UniProtKB/TrEMBL annotation:
Residues 2-142 form the SET domain. Transmembrane segments: none annotated. InterPro entries: SET_dom, SET_dom_sf, SET_domain_protein. SUPFAM superfamilies: SET domain (SSF82199). This is SET domain-containing protein. Pfam families: SET. It comes from Alternaria burnsii. The lineage of its organism: Eukaryota, Fungi, Dikarya, Ascomycota, Pezizomycotina.
């Protein structure tokens, strides 16, 4: 069990995970191997078979997890399936049960990020902002580019109503930002398949700004930096592309840890851009040198 957090009751949420010390961004909070996993598309029989393969202590740990249908008997098949559906994590091409990770509650403005690390075969959770001691550590169960009503409709499947700052924003500023983010993201996806009319990657740069304003500094921000880097590269500004790629890498390390495949991909992208920028600079130096030589011999 991690020493940086503890599980304790949280009003209105059952149990929650609370920091026991000040946690800095990029700190590994949890790394957990699944109890069992099933291939997608999954079947109920696959879930019950996976459960049957656990030892008695693991089965007990599994059955103490939240189940939306609280009327199911503690040890019947319906309960086993309900627990799985209420707590399962997507882990590559499979869906898994990680009982420690399942204790982390949701926020639409999370202070931690979770991911499947295929290299380790584990779920990892990293802090993405400074988390003061005694603060609840929360993850986001949903994609960020959704309005409050859309998120609530999807989160209802988990049996709760989110009351995070974004969902409690009476001014609707959060909804305005997130609606705009959804539009910008769509424009970026389209922009990858056609020439951008703007001299700068406007959509990606605006998306970065809105994500920061919304307090979304995790994986989505890293993807936006990647899109900005691609945009600057397309416009011939490799210097600015390299800067955005560096920020993408910084976010990736914070969210996924240095040993993740995601960080490896971000590093390769940055190295590639720097290599291209170096070749162009070398070519410019060669041209300048030839120009000087021509002047000397003229």
């Amino acid at each position: 069990m991690s020493t940086v957090y503890m599980v304790r009751p949280s009003p209105g949420e059952g149990l929650g995970c609370f920091a026991t010390t000040d946690i800095q961004p990029g700190t590994l909070i949890l790394s957990e191997t699944p109890l069992f996993s099933v291939a997608e598309p999954r079947t109920n029989s696959a879930v019950t078979t996976g459960f049957a393969g656990l030892d008695s202590a693991q089965q007990l740990q599994y059955l103490t997890l939240y189940a939306q249908n609280s009327h199911a008997k503690h040890d019947d098949a319906a309960r086993v399936i309900d627990v799985f559906n209420s707590n399962a994590w997507q882990t590559g091409s499979r869906t898994s049960i990680c009982p420690l990770a399942a204790r982390f509650n949701h926020s639409c403005v999370p202070n931690a990020s979770f991911a499947w690390n295929a290299r380790l075969g584990q779920i990892t959770i990293y802090a993405i902002v400074s988390i003061p001691a005694d603060t609840q550590i929360k993850l986001s169960y949903e994609r960020p580019y959704q309005t409050t009503s859309s998120r609530r409709a999807k989160l209802s499947a988990y049996g709760f109503t989110c009351a995070c700052p974004a969902c409690s924003d009476a001014s609707c500023c959060s909804d305005v930002r997130r609606s705009r983010m959804l539009l910008l993201d769509a424009r970026i996806r389209t922009g990858r398949r056609q020439l951008w009319r703007s001299p700068v990657p406007k959509a990606a740069l605006e998306l970065i700004r809105l994500l920061k304003e919304e307090g979304l500094v995790g994986e989505a921000l890293g993807l936006a930096y990647h899109d900005a880097a691609l945009g600057w590269k397309r416009h011939g500004r490799l210097d600015l592309a390299v800067g955005c790629a560096r920020m993408e890498l910084e976010v990736a390390v914070m969210c996924f840890g240095v040993e993740s495949l995601a960080v490896e991909g971000s590093m390769a992208f940055l190295v590639g851009l720097k290599g291209e920028a170096g070749k162009i600079e070398k070519a410019r130096c060669t041209v300048n040198t030839l120009g000087v030589l021509e002047e000397d011999t003229g």
